[in-house]
Amino acid sequence: MIGMLPRVARLTLMGIAVAAVSVPALAQDYPTRSVKIVVPYAAGGPADLYARVIAQHLSDALNQSFVVEDRPGAGSIIGTDAVAKSPADGYTLLMMSNTHTTNESLVPNKPFVLMRDFVPVAPINYSDLVMVVHPSVPAKDVKEFIALAKSKPGGLNYASSGTGTPYHMAGELFKAMTATDIVHVPYKGSSGARNDIIGGQVQMMFDAISTMAPNVQAGQVRALATTGTQRTTVLPQVPTMAEAGVPGYEATIWLGIMAPTGTPQAIVDKLNREINKALSSSTLKETWAQQGAVPLIMTPTEFDAYLRKDIEKWAQVVKVSGAKVE
What we know:
By secondary structure, the chain is of the alpha/beta class. The chain contains twelve helices and ten strands.
């Protein structure tokens, strides 16, 4: 039958057949060289730390090096845009977080659109945040901190790792729900913000439990509340925000992997399977539980729905809080 078709039609059918065979073969062979995971945040934060865990697992499982490259700046936009402009071949991946879903409404004039220019690969984990103050702050609990902030409108400040990050939005949500006026001080990364809350240059910060808990336990900062719906086993003595007097408050930081749009689905699926294998490891679960991190296991389709729902959620928070890019 094919021999009876015009030459152009025969060539078209042959091309389709070759493509149908080459895509699975591409996934089977992938990766044949080093893969880069771009972290659009400063080194030392949760995204950087957990990207390295995932990179090590993928390196071991797929017999190629997965290298983490930190490219911070502009609230994750610089590194993210670099990935968006990379070839869609599976060799440049993005470590993203709910900073990205927040920025969809907070920063409308970005050079990329998250769900247009990227495809979901797999989520990684989530962590509750902890609200901490420097020991010099004369507030022993959340209610005292709210009273202090209301007595000094604009007189207190809080640090974040940058505009649009989970730490920033947690602070804006707190301000909106408590009717307080606290000044946002954005840093280029969470490490700088963390250092300055410990040093007393800023009074308050929301930070991931996984990175701030050691500082709480060392007495370098005072924990006032955690941001989940239940107390964390890492800091069991610290009440949730609802218990501390702000009912309905909830905020987390979560992480995931995306790839440029056009990345072959077979490669996306292969990466998803390998990442989920790592997240299902009992050893990894136990280690992360001690840090306050919980694995998130989803298919690419489920992660897509999760991202779209989170974009809608933070659009409402941005609207209600009046948060703006500084």
